[in-house]
Model the fold of this input.
Amino acid sequence: MAKKNETTFEDQIKRLEYIVSVLDQGNASLNDMMSLYEEGMTLIVSCKKTLDEAEQKLTVLGAL
Done:
């Protein structure tokens, strides 16, 4: 469960999908695109961490 100030994995994925759609359209200013790109990369790192932690838990549970 997410802490009070954290977003859920699902919310992060939705935000990433939005960022990708904006970047794909190419209508934003260069500064906006750079900011969105940086935000997207931060979200990717966070999502990967969440997935890695889930995988570790499943590995431990599978070993029981």
Remarks:
- The two ends are 23 Å apart (CA to CA).
- Residues 19 and 36 are 6 Å apart (CA to CA).
